[in-house]
Recover the amino acids of this structure.
């Protein structure tokens, strides 16, 4: 139930972000969602793509530092309060959310949230048991 | 391992006998320099030391003027020679990163003696005629490669003059030739160690390796451990410089508790680098060395700029010659940042002891708004910390805090991608001082 996210180390220098995205473009890799965490000196670029394994190979071949991280993708009704229910549930069940980021789907009325928690598999099951849609890897990659 | 000796009678002389020999040779040396080197004729004459008879005791050496690198440079190339060129059989020169190279000139006897000094230190580290030693120092004007080469041959070891560069081929020779010892700079040994670890060949392919005989630049304890782990060797450090002859001036035995000085040929002192006064045994200061047997280019009281300490206790291995500590730094690569003395080796020891970062680093010193800043760039080992941003931040903070406690100084720690910093095959150049450059925006 978990999907693979690329985590790419980025030195905080001009052009580094462009280099990463260009490598992905040249390898014909489609980006589904993207988020950056950064300090003044370095950042981690988090990317959901259609072909994670190929993306890792392409980035590594260009000398970049990258790893695959397991995250969960939750489908949420695009209306007020829907997201807070999911977050409340994770909190009540004792899951620590490390980070999350969201994107809106082409399907009307749905938003997706990528969540990184300590115990991803269990968190996905808890969300699923409470009626939240958990996206399978194939669904996201083929989106 | 049992202690081995190359010239046991010399290496285990009684202290009183060493001092008697040194005094006799020093007096001879003063005469030799005064009579054969115009530079010393003038210097010694000005100081009133017109003959070796003026030196009554070893402590009278303090009346002899110092020789500096500038003196040697001012007499470039052959002004310091004590013999006609027909008696010189070889010329070496130091890398000369700061101007004209420093020249060393050797008579046939000098080469013989030098080979003995090297033979002593490689024997002390355990090497015998059964060993196969790969010399991965660059061959050429640099004293390291040929110095070790002649000394190892004198011991009877099999020498592979691999020179530096082409690292894959270096590894291939190690595997195929059954190499038992590597001669290299610590930074190159570190690099080869990384390659071995990542090599498609199992570690057993390198199992014949036993000795890492490293020198020509500093090597911290942590760096040594890293090299030993990756290459499966026991590392011994050795010391020397072109101005004095080359490697072999001192070197560690297998017990690795200080570098044994070849005291029959080199008379060491420690001075305070500011007052230029001699310091008592055991105190830290600048190493000053007088050659006692060198014929081609003798030097009196040469200021090495290396900072160390001398220990006159005989070693457990049986050697009685004075031991010097590993060089702690150089008076000229010491950085002064916001008035604080900083040696790159201090930073190196923090980094090498930190998990998840590599041993390669670069120091960038800048001036911002009239204040010095020090940036420490260090490589991540791999992508293993990327799952958690917090861990990366914690790593950065951890390094920063440890540097702060070791240096007493704020630094900016920058994590960079694995293998993105420059690798060095000879002496590493890790400091970039931009303080005299126009300010960056």
């Amino acid at each position: 139930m978990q999907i693979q996210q690329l985590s790419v180390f980025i030195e905080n220098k001009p052009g580094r972000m462009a280099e990463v995205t260009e490598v992905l473009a040249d390898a014909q890799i489609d980006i589904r969602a993207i988020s950056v965490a950064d300090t003044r000196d370095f950042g981690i670029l988090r990317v959901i793509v259609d072909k994670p394994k190929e993306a890792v190979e392409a980035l590594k071949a260009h000398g970049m530092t990258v790893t695959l991280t397991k995250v969960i993708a939750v489908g949420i009704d695009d209306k007020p309060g829907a997201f807070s229910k999911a977050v409340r549930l994770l909190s009540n069940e004792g899951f620590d959310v490390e980070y999350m980021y969201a994107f809106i789907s082409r399907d009307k009325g749905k938003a997706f949230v990528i969540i990184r928690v300590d115990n991803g598999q269990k968190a996905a099951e808890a969300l699923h048991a409470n009626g939240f849609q958990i996206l399978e890897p194939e669904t996201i990659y083929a989106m | 391992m049992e202690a081995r000796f190359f010239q046991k009678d010399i290496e285990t002389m009684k202290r009183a006998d060493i001092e008697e020999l040194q005094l006799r040779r020093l007096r001879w040396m003063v005469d030799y320099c005064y009579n054969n080197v115009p530079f010393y004729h003038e210097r010694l004459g000005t100081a009133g030391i017109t003959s070796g008879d003026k030196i009554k005791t070893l402590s009278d050496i303090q009346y002899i003027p110092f020789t500096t690198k500038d003196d040697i440079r001012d007499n470039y190339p052959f002004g310091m020679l004590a013999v006609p060129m027909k008696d010189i059989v070889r010329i070496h020169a130091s890398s000369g990163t700061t101007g004209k190279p420093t020249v060393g000139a050797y008579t046939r006897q000098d080469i013989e003696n030098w080979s003995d000094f090297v033979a002593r230190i490689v024997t002390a580290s355990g090497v015998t005629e059964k060993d196969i030693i790969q010399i991965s120092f660059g061959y050429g004007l640099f004293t390291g490669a040929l110095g070790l080469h002649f000394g190892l041959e004198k011991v009877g070891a099999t020498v592979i003059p691999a020179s530096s560069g082409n690292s894959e081929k270096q590894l291939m020779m190690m595997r195929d030739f059954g190499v038992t010892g590597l001669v290299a700079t610590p930074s190159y040994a570190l690099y080869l160690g990384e390659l071995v670890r990542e090599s498609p060949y199992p570690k057993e392919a390198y199992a014949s390796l036993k000795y890492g005989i490293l020198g020509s630049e500093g090597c911290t304890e942590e760096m040594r451990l890293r090299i030993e782990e990756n290459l499966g060797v026991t590392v011994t450090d050795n010391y020397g410089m072109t101005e004095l002859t080359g490697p072999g001036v001192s070197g560690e035995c297998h017990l690795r508790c200080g570098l044994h000085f070849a005291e029959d040929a080199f008379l060491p002192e420690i001075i305070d680098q500011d007052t230029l006064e001699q310091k008592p045994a055991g105190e830290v200061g600048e190493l000053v060395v007088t050659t006692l047997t060198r014929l081609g280019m003798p030097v009196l009281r040469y200021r090495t700029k290396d900072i160390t300490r001398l220990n006159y206790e005989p070693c457990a291995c049986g050697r009685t010659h004075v031991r010097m500590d590993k060089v702690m730094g150089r008076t000229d690569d010491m950085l002064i940042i916001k008035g604080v003395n900083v040696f790159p080796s201090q930073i190196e020891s923090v980094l090498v002891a930190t998990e998840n970062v590599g041993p390669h680093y670069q120091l960038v010193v800048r001036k911002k708004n009239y204040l010095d800043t020090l940036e420490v760039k260090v490589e991540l080992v791999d992508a293993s910390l990327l799952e958690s941003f917090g861990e990366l931040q914690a790593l950065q903070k951890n390094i920063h805090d440890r540097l702060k406690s070791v240096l007493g100084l704020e630094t900016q720690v920058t994590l960079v991608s694995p293998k993105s910093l420059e690798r060095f095959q000879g002496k590493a150049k890790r400091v970039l001082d931009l303080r005299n450059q126009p300010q960056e925006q």
